[in-house]
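Quick one, T. Sequence first:
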Amino acid sequence: MRRVRAVAALLLAGTAVSYGAAVAPAAAVASPAGGCWAYVPGGAALDSPPASDISVGLGAWTTVPDGGFGLETAGATAVGGTRVAQVEIASGPVLSAQDDLSGTATFLLSVDGVPLAAPADAAFTVAAGEPVEGLEASVPIPIAAAGPHQVRLEAVYFDAPASSLRVACNGQTQGQPSPGTNPATTPTATDVTADFTAAPAASATITAVADQAVLDAGRPADVASIRIAGLASSATATLSLCGSGGSCAAVGSVTTAADGSATTSFTVPGGAPVGAGTLRVEDEATTVSTGFTVLGVQRVAAAEALEADATIVTLTGTGWDPQRKVTIRGYAGTSSSVAATADPEVVADVDATGAFSAQYAVSDEATRSVIVDQARSSSHIGAVYLISGVIGGAATPDETDDPGEGIDGETGEPGGSETPVAETPESPGGAVTTPLDPDAGVEDPGDIPVPGDIPVDDPAGGAGAESESDDLAVTEARLVGESSFSELFGGAPQRDLVFLVENIGAETVENPIVRVSVGRSDDVEPELVGADVGALDPGEQAVVTVPLELPMAAFGSYVVVGQVGDTEPGAFRVEWTTYPWGLFAVNALALLLLGLGVRHRLDLRRRARAVALDLPDGAAVVDLTAADAWWAYRAGVGPRPVPRASLAPTSAPTADEQVPGEAGRRPRRGRDVVAEAFR
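Structure tokens:
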């Protein structure tokens, strides 16, 4: 019987019902190609043939100009991930012109022509004669292969089992009664598709590092460019530099495109972990890393060995820009601003780890230092080694007598075996040491005459000379940190004082003293703080951090003064300004409330004064006669006064009215009414 009613309704509706006449296909997003067919299913399976037709012609996908049919994918873009297909219908077909329906809409999808194992379902409820609206469904798509892929909407089935009604909508353009060709008997895929491209794997590739010849290393302030692929579509990915110990420093973020790719750049921060590590890129579902080394301060270790006419300085460097050459020259001073000496320069190659080893021959007496220089794209980096000052002078075999000759009888000059000169061990001053053989025998020299007075010149820099102060320089002093919530309301402000210490002297400095103080003016004297600088070789730098804290409720400008070592370049000064704005706001609010309270009290006084001013001149607010009678009674000299009934203010007579029972009396004035109220 329900089937008969449905057929009758469709016949009466004619073209007003979606199944009454064919509708020309519109744009894919407005309405898919093909149409819909209503029927009584012959079984529960979606591909069951119709038991009987309800439609008499091909119905339209939608009854509005734009049905809002959409299919898109989102999620992973690399093989092994899972992507999600999302299908929606803003306004679909009219399922029945007579019955209210409830059921399930089943969306059949395929990937590259292969149907998905599971369909996407969405429940619907629709009134008679109204189109199905606001349908959304999603289904996961495992990514099994790299390359381009296409997701297609094959068909949509609207199933209302309680009403024995099923509507098949697909790309079929013919609407012949069953068993003829129609969307129910011969389904055809729609033209609604969504494309995506899968990457073989998620990847992060560094494409360039400014001022570097390699792609896997950089030092602070270098800018690196990176290409990302295989991440989630239109997702936010974060970039971090991580050290081998697990600590990471965030360097930026980027939003990927629909295909999961992105290109961006980041600047290597000063706080990044130094040494071999990784650049980590991650979104909510995927993490990918690539090797990246953060270069620290370039260093040079040196050792000297004496030859007959020269001193050979063996230099070993670490922390230099990889795959770039370094140039080694001798200079008459401690910096490259002076002229180079006659010693020939040496060019050495730096390996992929930033290390090199080279020998430099010093024969020019004017050479005081050996400077290693490396040219970058926009700057230079270098290191200075101060030689010991001993150039050449190593003994040769022809300068000594043959072993075993003893004492030359004619000249009295001593003979004996040659004592070899050892290579100079690595030391800050580069001094030459000559080891003695403790096992060598010592022959009794006999009577040695006492030498006469021989003048001895005290060498410069000897034991009696005054030692030089540590030559340190402080640069880039700054305060790091943000205002906390408690600081806004008078809490103790806290910051980190960060500065760069460089050894500009000629000798290694071991853990120099650091003094820091905070005051209102520059006159404050720096005090000793527990900051560990460590050992600094000549030309070496170190970053020092000192935590600072001001007292509670501090406001205004303060001066941070400091000193590293005892020389003038080691002094520095930083300004610190802080204001507890939240505390100011609370005090302002308290003053406002206090002012409102005072104003309210003054208003009350004005009202009381207005009542008193309403009385005639000389009149009392209190009935003095009644008061005298009361006090006479209390003193025992008068009768007990009889109280008179007081009148409520709401019923009190006016000044010219008379109280009942008081006829013949004079009219009462306002002062009499007030007086009675006090009796």
